Amino acid sequence: MTQNNEPSHIYRSRRVLILGCGYMGLDIALRLSESGNLVKIMDVDSATFSRIPDEILESNRIQSVHGDGTFEDDLRRAVADHQIDVFIAATGITSVNITSAQLAQHLIKIPNVLCVVDDEDVEEIYSQMGMHILNRRKLAVEHILIDAMEQNK
Amino acid sequence: MLYTVILGGGLIGTGIARWLIEAGSEVTIIEINADKVDIINASLGDVAIIGDAHKISDLELAGIERADSFIATSSRDDINLVACQIAKEKYSISNTTSLVFNPGNDDFFRLLGINKTLNVTNTVIESIASASAELFVEEV
Lengths: 153, 140
Prior knowledge:
The complex is a heterodimer of chains A (153) and B (140).
Chain A: E1 15-19, H1 23-34, E2 38-43, H2 54-58, E3 62-66, H3 72-79, E4 86-89, H4 94-107, E5 112-117, H5 120-128, E6 132-135, H6 136-152
Parallel strand pairs in A: 1-2, 1-4, 2-3, 4-5, 5-6
Chain B: E1 3-7, H1 11-22, E2 26-31, H2 34-44, E3 48-50, H3 56-61, E4 69-72, H4 77-89, E5 95-100, H5 105-111, E6 116-119, H6 120-136
Parallel strand pairs in B: 1-2, 1-4, 2-3, 4-5, 5-6
């Protein structure tokens, strides 16, 4: 029995590992956690975990993992015995994201790997190599332009 | 004349450049720190430019399109990896060499197509172990 007001897809909750507990990584983590996914967040600087709201850490809705995402051993430890469905490299440093995303894709074989970059040159080259690249500067500009057009209406 | 582009004007990058110049090769160093570029150019002639190895415009200023080899000598594995991959994928440079500091990264870099890796950490440990182990370890 199908009802029209139901969403056309049913999403199973996913296990997501996010690299980078800065503003971008943590925002992504909070949003994915709110929508029912199991989220781990990894950062080389454990002080960044103090930004995660206490009630979210206490309820284990987001788990923090201290480690360097450009080190295979650290990434494997973060994945641990969990089956990670999605890896998102979202630190503020493009080359760190590219390196960890390739570790996740080629060595750890996480099925879905997303990589955030700042740089159009890097975006173009790695997109052509088959990586899923998001250029955060371009995305921000596009959103600002869309908003500006809306204001003009 | 063979042409080599080197990322990083530290002691290793500058040392390789000096050796290549003395051997009669052509070299350009890309270095992000302007002070280092001045020092290199004062001692080796105008061989260094200020630039970011992930920027196409800087790489092309260094003449990467006609380079035979690319050597990444920055002190960070992630920066070296991305620079070598750009040299290889965008400019089809068949001879890419990278310094590697994390001992686990050798195989990973080669899996991604970097031709040669030089593992600095392992090299230092091995040379201490083979040259002067008796100073630190009693014979078993």
